[in-house]
Amino acid sequence: MRIPFFRELETSRRVLIAGCGGGFDIVSGLPLYVALQHQGKRVFLANLSFARVDLACPKKIGPSARLVDFDSRMQGYFPERHLVDWLAARGDEPKIFAFEKSGVRPTCRSYEALVRLLDIDTLILVDGGTDSLMKGDEAALGTIEEDALSIVAANETACPRKFLVCLGFGVDHFHGVCHHSFLENAAELIRSGGFLGCVSVSAGEPEGDALLDAVDFLNARQPSSKSIVANSIASALRGDFGDRHATERTRGSELFVNPLMSLYWCFRLEAVARKMGFYDAIAGSETFHEIESAIRIHHARVAKRDWKNLPL
């Protein structure tokens, strides 16, 4: 039994997988990267970056994208550069494309430049966590600003097939996301035809093992900047459960590591994008500050849904 998402990818030849929320989001795309490579597809990696890629990477693509490779200068926090070394150790092509945090318009032009340069026919955004499904009327939005930048920019980019995939259900409770609202939004996407199924990432398989290996690699390279999301997902893949802390950054809080964190939730990108109540307000943005301001204003003015705990 195959989920609709993989049926939609059958004719894809050249795929760009991009972390949409910044930081370690690209790590959540690595199981897909491995799976699609095994299907014979040409797969490229990209990520919205929190590093100063404008200073570290001399090779520019479009207004706000940079090529991260062996020529990129290392920084204190630069997971993309470390992943270049990880890719090289696997025998893969050692390069990742990184987007600076800017506005939707320059990011869209950079996506368009990459699509042309790489002859991309399929664009998959990957969210580590699930706050990318927030529409703007939830009780809390998590860290939606970066996700919104990537989602709207990618949606405005001309490309035959575009999707959003989320990995890590439950981890964003730490960042203030109401998962009752996430499930309500997912149900709405099911009704509208925007949902393309769920599939589990498993340890002991090449896809899951790639994620676990990359997380261990990044933890060793950046021990003071261990990702809360990536390490929680890795813990779930290893069978940990409950209030388990893989990084000191979460000490003092209560986590709920659980098997649902290993599920990919797959959606049509346009269906998710057009549910965003602040879409038009940020579509013309030139800077990231404009996005932050527009979402903050929207959330302050909109009638919000109540926070509800899951009745389980």
Concise description?
Helix content is 39%, strand content 16%. The protein is of the alpha/beta class and 312 residues long. It has a single domain (4-222, 262-301), classed as Rossmann fold, CATH 3.40.50.
Alpha-beta classification:
alpha/beta
User: In this structure, how is the largest beta sheet organized?
Assistant: 9 strands, mixed
| Domain tally | 1
Biggest sheet, spatial arrangement of strands: 3-4-5-2-1-6-7-9-8
Question: N- to C-terminal separation?
Answer: 28 Å
**Shape annotation:** globular
Question: Number of helical runs?
Answer: 12
CATH topology: Rossmann fold
Mean pLDDT: 95
What is the H/E string? HEHEHEEHEHEHEHEHHEHHH
- CATH top level class name: Alpha Beta
Low-pLDDT stretches are none
Alpha carbon gyration radius: 18 Å
Using the 3D structure, state the CATH architecture. 3-Layer(aba) Sandwich
Features:
Rossmann fold, alpha/beta, DUF1152 domain-containing protein, nine-stranded mixed β-sheet, 312 residues, DUF1152
Question: How would you describe what is shown here?
Answer:
The chain has 312 residues and is an alpha/beta fold. The chain has a single domain, classed as Rossmann fold. Helix content is 39%, strand content 16%. It has a 9-stranded mixed sheet, with helices on both faces. Helix 2 packs across helix 8 (206-221). The protein is globular. The two termini are 28 Å apart. The relative contact order is 0.17.
Topology, pairings included?
Blueprint: H1 4-8, E1 14-19, H2 30-38, E2 42-48, H3 53-56, E3 60-61, E4 65-68, H4 79-90, E5 96-99, H5 104-118, E6 122-128, H6 144-155, E7 161-167, H7 179-192, E8 195-200, H8 206-221, H9 228-237, E9 263-268, H10 269-273, H11 279-283, H12 288-301
Parallel strand pairs: 1-2, 1-6, 2-5, 6-7
Antiparallel strand pairs: 3-4, 4-5, 7-9, 8-9
Helix pairs in contact: 2-8, 4-8, 5-6, 6-12, 8-9
